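Problem 12. The chain below contains 189 residues. Write out its predicted structure in token notation.
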Amino acid sequence: MIRSLAPALALATLLLGAASSAPLGERLAPCLACHGAQGTSETEGVPSLGAQQADYVVTQLFQFRERQREAAPMNEMAAGLSDDDLRAFADALAALPAPVAAGGPPDPALAARAQALVSKHQCNSCHGADLAGRDALPRIRGQREDYLKAALAAYRSNARPGYDPAMNEVAQTLKDDEIADLAAYIARL
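Solution.
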């Protein structure tokens, strides 16, 4: 997946760097090519950013820019962004429509298992009652299932440090089947 995106991402990096004075819509085009122009990503492993909390996006872009969070295409893209750029990009992405849930509604058994996990780990206390996020905490509702699985596994292994240790701490106790249930359920909300 990453190899097939490499030429497009290299071009996006060049365009963003060369066109820093270009209108925001033009500068966002490479972002939307991967993350979804209508808020829902169709690219495996790439999160949907529609209706994402702007403060969360600013923080993530800052972490990519400062290499506090490593993801080659994102680190390259964010390298030349000013603080004003971070805010402008975040506000534009937050204004996109919320992601369209994939896979139809969860079956009742999956929903029951996942709801028990959401309750046990108090996901709603940070991500909101409807898991749509708040303030600097991300919207996870309707996120890509493959992305949710990968993110939870990375938090569990500490390969993805959070700017707050809460996710790493919560994920430490998750088993593979619980990660799969949470991802499948949350993606279908």
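Discussion. Residues 153 and 176 are 8 Å apart (CA to CA). Students who got a different answer should revisit the alignment rule from Section 12.3.
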